[in-house]
């Protein structure tokens, strides 16, 4: 890292920090929680350690005392400093907030938020029982002292493995901010799984580590020490110095000086030797910088997973409403709307199709007159228009409702979807005013069809046939043609629905001519489908709004990967 | 059996019955339960059966805990000899070892536990109270050696009683509490908590504080409120208490059952997360919606219109004014057009409609897309309404059950309509009025003929004496009266036919409603109810397994 331009490196790391800080992992996918944690840890380590260390390489060395609960970390710190700066005790976990002990001259390095900006600074010297902030994991207590050499600070961290979750995450954050790990373990502890997971990580990153083997029964010293040394060697930490402290009776809560003398003098020499200190600092920094790439890529992969889950989620309502639109479009085309009530009304208007074909028009009219005489009813196109309106409205409404239900159901089966559905319970049903809006839509469309007929009629307004049906009647005929345009009817249905459509088309053609009817029908159908599409878009927007809350930026993973590559290139 | 002696409390339902219920619940719940939970529960049932087959009078007590908490030291202290290797080197114990008290053979049980290392304790006077005990020294639950943990977990699944050994350094470790104690929801009768190595705490007041803190942590884990036994294998403190507590458990001889019952209850709880507290019922409103949608889709309104028109047509043909009756014949038979009419039995006594009910389909127009979509929506809504409070897997099963294949459904609907008789016996008044009409027509024709006769005779200048009713000549009265009365009766008949047609429509509608209700029951409601019943049964079985 030394040969490259430090300013470029700093800029690259800052970019990575911004990039990692801005990515979101909002969906509850499998492994999302882990990814969120590793993203948070990455950002924290950049803020807490990498950026401040890059900005000032000559700042004091920060040694974090970490380890298992009950390993005697606090006792060790107190003994090293020679006064009770942090609370000790038998109740586990004892330490819940962190204490930073430093030489008086170094105070300026720690009072501002250069390192560990997320933790509030609490002043105050020696521990005073349950003083304010003593147990607040969000704060760090600064203790200036003269018993530590300048250029070196000790941070007493909470445990890594107790039942208190806050301790575990805080201690990991603090260890990630260390220039040097002072890893405390005991004769009973040294084969525990949790600390070794951390040590393996440290070894992989190249963090500088020193091991303190505490509370060793004198009779077990050599055996345990040898075993620990071989375990460390296996882990690639063979160069880490081991300091053993025997299990002895405490003297006023502190380990007698002679037992910690070796560790203390090692720290002293490290503090006074600028070169050695710089080696330790650079080693850890370089290791951490090297690890950034892989970790950022891991987060980027998780973000990419989120992005693809997000796009699958975004696809579901699109598919559902596209299917609904296709259903409406098909229902409009295949003449099936012309069945049932529409058919009955149509027959009422023009006389029974079969009859009309078999008997001369005159008799048909006579029969209609007789019928009208007995029923006292005048045949009009209005009921037919209403029937068409009802049929089309039902078609559009039910497809809209099915789409909402389908989209919700698909979400329930997609990763990250169930939580969205739970959070927005109304999604599975169409919006309450759908029926109303569909009716308005049909009315608008019928208005447009009327307008279309009127425009097209132009000069033909005086013709007998035009007058016979009136503009309303012709509009209804046009709708019938619209609803049967594809002519894809099958078998017996042609006789009923097809017959009426053919008749309607003939009648219209007689007024407007072949070409005009075709283009009018095309226009009218296009207008209807456009209206429906608009309506379904509005319906779909309810899903889009939900998605906006959990939006994953499509390019976020690439940006993160690029930033990581930038750091890799600059280090 | 001890379990029978204690006829109150959690142990009331015997283990075999609980296990059987849990197993049935898993079978009934099927795919609608969380597969991971089901796997685990099946394992529990399996182990319960295996352990039960080996029950005898033995009680397996396992010493479990973190590395270095002194399990092996305690084990040796209880056994009274150096059986387990004790060493400062961690982790020490790689394989479980067992010590056996009493004469009852334990070979099969230990084979099942998978413990080859066995030590028969020579029972002297002060060991007699532990008769029947199989004490197991487990590897660590938190060591860095993965296979140690696997071995410990395997035996922990099978042991009858857990003795959790903690020490002042490690008693608050997350591994012990989060991974091992928290899942033990119902095991408080089969576990002991020991705080070992108290000789390492110099201050006696601190011992009490640590003990209380450990008790609090275990309570917070939800594993029950346990009095912590304070021991020191080195000084021998508390060993007698531990021994007597173990002796009590062993003496009761019900620990195996209690542990398995606790396991079954825990598994039932976990599987139970996949069912709701209550099984919902089908709502009337959704049912009504479905009925309406099916009615529309099966073309009932069209049929009813045809029925009404058919009635009018027939009434006209039978009781209409004879002079215009022929007009009606020009119109097609509305029911025939739908291939529904013609119920007159043939020579063999079989009506064509009967044949069609077996073979054919009506030619009712197939449902409009809107009607089809409405059916889909209504049946799905039934499932959604019913499943609102249920876990997702059950919701899916309901929706699946409520989605009949479209072909089957429309076929069934068609059959329902075809199979419903649409015509009834012709009303008497048709015949009466028809006869009256014919009579009146005959009178009018007679009058006409008479008048014609009179006119012809008059033309030939043959004098005819026409009788008079008052001022009106009788033939004229006959003609006009016959025509007028005929028209009057025709109008009356038409009114009556309207009323009759409406009544017929109602009758047929009721019949069709019934038929459609049957279809909706067969194709939607019954499958949905089946799923709901399965849910209810699973829920009850789980509840009773975990009671």
Report on this model:
The complex is a heterodimer of chains A (571) and B (547). Chain A contains 19 helices and eight strands. By secondary structure, chain A is of the alpha/beta class. In chain A, helix 15 packs across helix 16 (464-482) and helix 16 (464-482) runs parallel beside helix 18. The longest helix of chain A has 60 residues, at 274-333. The radius of gyration of chain A is 40 Å and the shape is rod-shaped. By secondary structure, chain B is α/β, with parallel strands linked by helices. In chain B, 59% of the residues lie in helices and 7% in strands. Chain B is built from 20 helices and nine strands. Chain B has helices spanning 2-5, 15-29, 35-53, 71-79, 107-113, 146-158, 174-181, 204-221, 239-252, 255-272, 284-297, 300-319, 325-330, 334-337, 352-358, 369-387, 392-401, 406-418, 428-459, 474-546; strands spanning 59-65, 97-100, 117-120, 133-137, 161-166, 191-195, 229-230, 468-469, 472-473. The model of chain B is unreliable at 1-11 (pLDDT under 50). At the A-B interface, helix 6, helix 7, helix 9, helix 10 and helix 12 of A face helix 7, helix 8, helix 12, helix 16 and helix 17 of B.
Tag the structure with descriptive keywords:
heterodimer; A: 571 residues; alpha/beta; rod-shaped; B: 547 residues; 7-stranded mixed beta sheet; 20 helices
Poorly predicted runs of chain A are 128-133, 352-364, 374-379, 487-497
**Structural class category of chain B:** alpha/beta
Topology, number of strands of chain B: 9
Largest sheet of chain A: 8 strands, mixed
Number of helices of chain A: 19
Distance between the termini of chain B: 20 Å
Distance between the termini of chain A: 5 Å
Taken from the alpha-carbon principal axes, the silhouette of chain A is rod-shaped
Over all CA atoms, what is the radius of gyration of chain A? 40 Å
What fraction of the residues of chain B are assigned to beta strands by DSSP?
5-15%
| Structure summary, number of beta strands of chain A | 8
